[in-house]
Amino acid sequence: MPGQAQPDAMPLLRFRLDAVVCVEPAGLGPSSVITAGNTFTLRTELGFDGLFVGLLAGQQFVVRHHVQRIEDGLVKTLPLAGGQFTVPGTGAAHIPVIAGPYTTGPNGSGADLEIPPPPQAGGTYRVTTHVHALNVAVRPIVAAFHDGPIVMVT
Q1: Which fold does the domain 4-153 belong to in CATH?
Q2: What global pTM score does this model have?
Q3: Using the 8-state DSSP alphabet, how is residue 62 labeled?
Q4: What pLDDT digit, counting tens, does each position of 130-146 carry?
């Protein structure tokens, strides 16, 4: 499911945030349920289209992920862990950005995502993502937001 992004002014310039996907290691595909103790990464699929894409070449962006535990509302920002990219001079139509690995574990383990205290058998997390430019002149013009995925640690 795509997120929302600006600008959206084709044919001149469009920024797309196509998806945010949770991926477990060892070549497993996208996952919604993660076994406590395993790690995972978040892959953000985004891109730029239009006649003026070249104006963004060399601009640096940051992808930040925030999580909210559904059971009790606990909110935290995941560490940056690789979620930065530079817009290439060519090939900006599809840019995958990998962040993580992030950890999972039982309550009190200090993991990035923890199972809440008993009687809960698992923790369900809503991941929200935002992308912004490091350049303060570009920041109010080019930005993106994504609500999802929902993952469970069990």
Answers
A1: Immunoglobulin-like (2.60.40)
A2: 0.91
A3: E
A4: 999 999 999 999 999 99
